[in-house]
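Final report, closing paragraph on structural work. Over the funding period we assembled a curated collection of sequence-structure pairs, and we close with a single example.
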Amino acid sequence: MTRDEVIAWCLAQPGAVETYPFGEHVLVVKVTGKAFAYIGFEENSIALRCGVNAEEAATVRARHPDAVRPMGYQSRHGWNTITLDSAIPDAELHELLAASYDYARS
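Its predicted structure, as stored:
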């Protein structure tokens, strides 16, 4: 998926809100006041919650070591940064987007 496709998907979700709390270089999409996607314009990346904890998020990194890395201090809470336009199949990225959205809504 391209960055534009990811943004369109995120903003099409019920209750999604577009915010820029860190400046115009990072779009943070929220639902129920909680972030579910950090979209980096400079790095062409997206950070998503990929599990309920660091161990679950590590399984995604193990499947795609060249495209997925821990998201700084947020990684302990299950967040990963994913390089867009990488080798991750669109269907899997869709699943990760949906799961991150669902985590934020719960």
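The chain has one domain: 3-105. The helical segments are 3-11, 54-63, 90-105. We thank the funder for supporting this effort.
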